[in-house]
Amino acid sequence: MSVVDSLIGKESNGKLCFGNYELPEKKKLSDYEYEGDLYKVKTFEQITKLEKNGLFVYESVPGTAVHDFSMKAEGVSFIVEGPEDAQITIGLEEETEYEVYVDNVLLSSMKTNLSGKLAIGLELDKGKSLEVNIKKVER
User: What pLDDT is attached to residue 1?
Assistant: First the structure.
C-alpha cells in the first residue's frame, strides 16, 4: 500500500482510495464524483478527512492513506496505512451497534453516538497496513 498521490481516486477494483499522510501542508480536493456522489478530501500529515455530499464519512488523526474503501448499509470496510498510531472516526447510523474487526479479528462491539460517529484507535506502523471491517449488528 502507499499514499494516494492524487488525494482521492478509484482503484482498479472499483473501490475508493484517499489520503496522503506524507504531505507537510494541508491539501484538499472537492467535487470528486464517485458512484453518483460528490466527495471532498482534506489530507496531510496531521489529519485525513473525507466527506460525501457534504456529510462526514471518515477522519483520522494523524493523517492516513486509505485503500479499498467501501461503505454500504451493513457497514464499512477499508485498508488503512499510517506512519504512527491513529484515532479513526467513521460516520455511520446513529445509536446503532457495530462489530469492529481488524485483520479479521474482532476488536470490539460498539454503539454509535447520537451523531452516528464511531471512534477506534489503531496501532499503525509506516509501511504496514491494517484491514478494518465494521459490521452492523442485526438484532
Answer: 58
